[in-house]
Every structure is written in structure tokens, then in C-alpha cells.
Amino acid sequence: MKVTVITPTWQRHNLLLDRCIPSVAGQVFDGSIEHIVVSDGPDPVLAERVADLPVVLVQWPQHPLWVPNFGSHLRNHALTLATGDVVMYLDDDNAYRPEHVATLARALATVDFAYSRMQRHGHVSGLVGAEPPQAGHVDTSILAHRAGLTTCWPHPESPTCDAVVVGSWLAAGATWAHVPEVTVDYYWRGGS
User: Fold this and answer.
1) Which of 16, 17, 181 lies closest to 99, judged by CA?
2) Do 124 and 50 form a contact (C-beta atoms < 8 A)?
């Protein structure tokens, strides 16, 4: 099985390089992982820093009226490039625990999408990822879905965009599984 992990980023080089990319590269998983990092605008410094790392860097062209929104439109573009059987997401300031990819890949054996739990750190702490899948119970970084599941992240991004996507899957009759294990660490605004 091949898994594609999609990471949108914008000018958070250290968090991306020190936390996010190593957590994907450090997964304990029998299949292969394609990590697509999509930068919101040209970033020659990032291109140089990831040149020797196991990632596919895509630099999205800046729009003349560009406003930093490093989420939905970048995820949608990366989805058109993904070659994995399964798609997962990880924001540039967060980290997967070593078993995240394997755990959710197993959960997808008989369903269309799955999600785990995440531990929030920093200003807003606590756990996210309870049943059933609805607003406040899911986050982009804990979601995994089959590549064939129609996915379009809403733009502009809102605090409930993950719930909008999950809601569209449920409305279309998608099946799901919840994994009650914490497999992701979420850092409030990039904190520690």
C-alpha cells in the first residue's frame, strides 16, 4: 500500500524541517509513503532546505491579490498530484507519532475514511477525535481516506473546513472508522 501525506506550508521552515517532515519520515509502516509539501508562494529558501529530504516540494504560484491561506487550496492542488492508495494530511507545525500511518491504514481496510485522536499542546490543550465524526470531533491532521473518495477542501479555509469535508463524505454515504488512539501531536500556533 502507498500512502500520500499532504502538508501545506507557508514560511514556517524550522517547524516543517524539525517537527513535521521527520515525523513522517519516522513512520513505522510496511508500505511506502509519498510526502507532498505544498508551499503557498515561491520560496527559494525552502526549496534549498528540502532538496535532499524525502519530500515532493510543490511551490504554488502567488496570486496578485495573495493573502496567506496555507490550507484548503494547497490541499486541493496536492490531491491532483497524489499517487497513493490512501491520503492523509499533516499541517507543517504538527507531528505524527510513529504509528500514525500504519494505524490509520489498517483502519481503512473496510471503510472509506478513518480518523484517530490527537493531543493538543500549548494555549489550547486536550484531546480531539471523539465519535461520531462531526464539527469539533475531527481535525485535518487525524483524517485518512481512500484516494477515490471525492474530496474538495473549502476555500477560503474556515475553522470548520474539516467538518465540511467529513460532512460531505457522510452525506454521500461514506463509511468510517474511529481509532481511539492518540497518533498526532497538535501544537497551538506552532508552539512547543
Assistant:
1) 181
2) no
Where residue 63 falls among pLDDT bands split at 50, 70, 90?
A: low
Which helix (DSSP H) or strand (DSSP E) does residue 120 occupy?
strand 113-121
Neighbours of 77 (CB within 10 A): 16
The C-alpha atoms of residue 112 and residue 173 are separated, in whole angstroms, by 9
Domains, in order of start, for the chain: 2-190 (3.90.550.10)
CB neighbours of 136 closer than 8 A, spacing ≥ 6? Answer: 128, 163
Neighbours of 183 (CB within 10 A): 23
User: Model pTM?
Assistant: 0.91
Torsions phi, psi of 32, nearest 5? -105, 155
Using pLDDT thresholds of 50, 70 and 90, give the confidence band for residue 76.
Answer: confident
Report the C-alpha gap between 132 and 32 in whole angstroms. Answer: 30
φ, ψ (nearest 5 deg) of residue 33: -125, 125
Task: Name the nearest CA neighbour of 165 among 190, 141, 130, 189.
Answer: 141
Taking only Cα atoms into account, the Rg of the chain, rounded to an integer number of angstroms, comes to 15
